[in-house]
Amino acid sequence: VLAHPERYVYWSDRFEELQKIKQKGVALQINIMSLAGGYSKQAQKTAERLIDEGLVDFLGSDCHQKRQIELLEKARELPHYRRALQQYALNNALL
After folding, report:
1. Which residue has the higher pLDDT, 33 or 86?
2. Nearest residue to 92 (alpha-carbon basis) of 39, 81, 43
3. Among 41, 47, 45, which residue's Cα sits nearest to residue 60?
4. What number is the average pLDDT over the span 35-46?
5. Which of 5-9, 29-33, 58-62 has the lowest mean pLDDT?
6. Among 8, 83, 13, which Cα is nearest to 48's?
7. Mean pLDDT of all residues in 63-83
8. CA 53, 57, 62 angle in degrees (round to 5)?
9. Which of 9, 23, 33, 34 is spaced 20 to 30 A from 65 at the CA atom?
């Protein structure tokens, strides 16, 4: 599992490489707080694109502080969060 690839600037414009990695069997887990802009606008855009392209296997919280709970709650109202939950490829239920 490659955790939060949306937060690595290196991957933000290398979707072809992420697709190749995924084809080799690596699962991608995005951070829910990225969808709420909790890390950067670029991380948010990358997370949204990963969802749009069906590359997300898991959603994670990576929550370490109480204030981050607010971002998780905010993300639950966003269209990309809801879209990710509807994707058939999301594997959170297997955990």
Report:
1. 33
2. 81
3. 47
4. 92
5. 58-62
6. 83
7. 83
8. 110
9. 9
Distances (CA, A) of 65 to 7, 34, 68: 18, 15, 5
Tokens 């919280």, residue located:
61
- Pairwise CA distance, residues 26 & 20, whole Å: 9
User: What is the pTM for the complete model shown?
Assistant: 0.81
pLDDT at 11: 82
> Which contacts (CB < 8 Å, 24+ apart) does range 33-38 have?
33/61, 33/62, 33/63, 33/68, 33/71, 33/72, 33/75, 34/4, 34/6, 34/7, 35/75, 35/78, 35/80, 35/81, 35/84, 36/71, 36/72, 36/74, 36/75, 36/78, 38/68, 38/71
